[in-house]
Amino acid sequence: MITIKDLGFAYGEKAVLKNITMNLEEGRIYGLLGENGVGKTTLLTLLCGLKKPQRGSIDTDGRNPYDRQPSLLSDQYYLSDEVPAMNMKAADYAKYYGKFWEGFDMDKFIEVMGVLENDPQQKMNQMSFGQLKKTYIAFALACNTKYLFMDEPTNGLDIPSKAQFRKAITKYTREDSIILISTHQVRDLENIIDPIIILDRQDVLLNATLEEISQKLYFDYSSERMEDALYSEMVPGGNIQVCLNQSGEDSKVNIEALFNTVHLHKELIKGIFNK
Amino acid sequence: MKNDIFNFRRFGKYFGTDIRTCWANYGLSLLTLTLLTPVALYVIVNAFNLILESSWDGPDLGLRFAVFCFAMVCLIVTMPVKCYGKLTEKQYGTFWLTLPASKLEKFISMIIITCIIAPLAGILLYIGADALICAIDHTCGRNLVQGGIHFFQNWSELGHMTLNLVDETLTIEDAALTKQLLEQINSPMLYIDEIFGITLPFLLGAIFFKSGKTVKTILALFVISSVSSAIMAPVVESWSHELLANINNDPNVILSMFNNGLFKNLVLLDTISDTVINTAMLVCIWLRIKTLKH
User: Fold this and answer.
1) Which of A186, A242, B78, B210 could covalently link to A255 via disulfide, CB atoms 3.0 to 4.6 Å apart?
2) pTM above 0.90?
């Protein structure tokens, strides 16, 4: 389990994260959502030890990520939003660097590259950004790490690749892994992320599972207008409306509508979910 | 419990990968600098000799040695930036920091490659290319290795030779002094620690500055040396005044100084000061690696 306690981080005078407290549990794929500049990438880099917390602490199963101990590094993988184009073939990259991760599986790398329709024999510095991203996604999954942090993994991927990514992430990750994926494009990750974390400026607005969300919020897809809707949006064929779930009825969570609802009613949502 | 500080197996893996990465980043530049430079020098000098003097005459040992030194300085200045300069870039730096090897392993590998392997590879390749040219065309005279051996043989023989000149141009005291001086400053440590002294600042500059790494390193060295000279100049001046005053008053004092190993002590002092500076550089590089963030 990853325990984040009173985490604070600022760039100079500008505070980005303030008193962030949460637990990330095993066997879950967390979706980290938030507007630009709210600190999603900062949080990910803090979790994988690329930055040092200025306040509070991060505990990854008893270890401090900033110590960058090889035993922890070999059990975690951070996929940055910007990836280096190495002067070597993708297969050679996997061969040379994969050996540093104890659980690395070359066959799995080749398999995932196949699923993502990428050529392992192509030189990485001759790949398009999307192909390069897919190579690193395949590498990340082939590392079989317990902790997997992905920053905007679907950026630069074409439409079929986004579907292939969803398929790969559900099929090729460990049962006990903690996966944290940050994204702007919530539709790309719909159906795979659960729980959902929504960050606001310096704060966590929401950290809840889809089950908890659907228990507390009701997502209506009918064309009938609801008077008590917290959020309403017209879509082809009707509306998406979000209101408090007072009847206990089940509904399918629409992450984009949820995100907009949370942003419109920050204090209300915090109050509901922090009860 | 795994060793998170240093593990030989993991270090071996990392070192191999580090060498491979450096070769990918700097291999071509290394080959160009060490193999193409002596060939280019040979071709240019011969071309000039043909045009100006209508003779086929390769570059002499002195010129080849000077160009060799220049090429080695270029290697030392450019190699750390090409191999490790990318650590300050977000993309590569993130990858490097999250690579599962300890900070100590990454540090040791970096030092071995920059201070030992790259200069050694450069020297061997260059003198190999030079030896090949000299073997093909005898107008070049001695190759760099033969020239070096000859120089050091003469160096140690020079003292004995001076003794033969007694009663001709030198007194026995002069000859004895010259011999002693030559012997005292002929210490390998005087040259070996200089390699570290030159490479380490450029390695530190490569991983410290985010842009203009080489220029900023040279500027920083210029500022540091200016400041340290300004501080040390009065000390050295008063010391040399004292020394010269003693010599003027009594020439036998300088003889006693030589007899007491003056130059040997200066070599030792130079070695100690170089060791202190190199250790400080190593500490700075280590701290930079330890605190590097992205």
Assistant:
1) A186
2) no
